[in-house]
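Dear H.,

Thanks for agreeing to be a second pair of eyes. The structure we're designing against is below in token form, covering all 213 positions.
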């Protein structure tokens, strides 16, 4: 969508019609984000039931839409949080689509509680890069203490995915307020990272703790 273009949608308050529109667009399309925001703002039990049903679809894009709707439903109040987290806990272990599984992780970190932390941390070691990136990007929404450090250190050394390394390094540098040898060593390793942004983040984290390179 161009900077000067305005998406044109059917004028409706019917969530089923809005979902139908959503499914026409890809995950990274601006139009999809606009439609999702409309459903998030609308909220309501009918939207929750519709989105929940999508999560059981055989079609990955429909499951993705269901999870995307549920994650921020009723924003900023976040309706049906307990039910949404329970649903994700039921489904995530058998989800075989990388993007859907990654979004499920973010549901747990956005809508869950510290009780969900062990499950989220287990996905730091998942074989799918999108899922690992979701943990690195959002686990500190649940906790910023010693419990998250081993997983973040592991993810900060993810040689297969630059974004995962960057998010994990940032979390260690800026969001975990612990001055431990494990964190200092992990940040020092990242001073030699191939990516200049990762190197800068690591350097800032060391400086913030009073350590030089």
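And this is the sequence the design step returned. I haven't edited it by hand at all.
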């Amino acid at each position: 969508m161009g900077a000067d273009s305005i998406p044109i949608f059917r004028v409706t308050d019917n969530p089923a019609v809005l979902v139908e529109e959503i499914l026409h667009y890809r995950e990274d399309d601006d139009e999809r984000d606009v439609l999702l925001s409309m459903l998030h703002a609308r909220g309501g039990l009918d939207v929750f039931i519709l989105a929940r049903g999508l999560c059981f679809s055989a079609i990955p894009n429909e499951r993705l839409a269901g999870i995307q709707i549920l994650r921020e439903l009723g924003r900023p109040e976040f309706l049906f949080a307990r039910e949404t987290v329970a649903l994700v806990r039921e489904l995530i272990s058998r989800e075989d689509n990388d993007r859907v599984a990654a979004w499920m992780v973010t549901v747990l970190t956005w809508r869950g509680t510290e009780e969900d932390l062990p499950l989220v941390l287990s996905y730091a070691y998942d074989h799918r890069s999108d899922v690992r990136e979701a943990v690195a990007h959002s686990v500190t929404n649940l906790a910023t203490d010693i419990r998250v450090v081993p997983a973040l250190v592991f993810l900060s050394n993810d040689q297969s995915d630059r974004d995962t390394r960057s998010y994990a390094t940032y979390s260690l540098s800026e969001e975990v307020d612990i001055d431990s040898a494990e964190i200092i060593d992990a940040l020092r390793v990242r001073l030699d990272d191939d990516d200049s942004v990762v190197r800068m983040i690591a350097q800032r984290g060391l400086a913030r703790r009073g350590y030089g390179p």
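Two observations from my side: The chain has twelve helices and no strands. The CA atoms of residues 172 and 183 lie 7 Å apart.

Warmly,
E.
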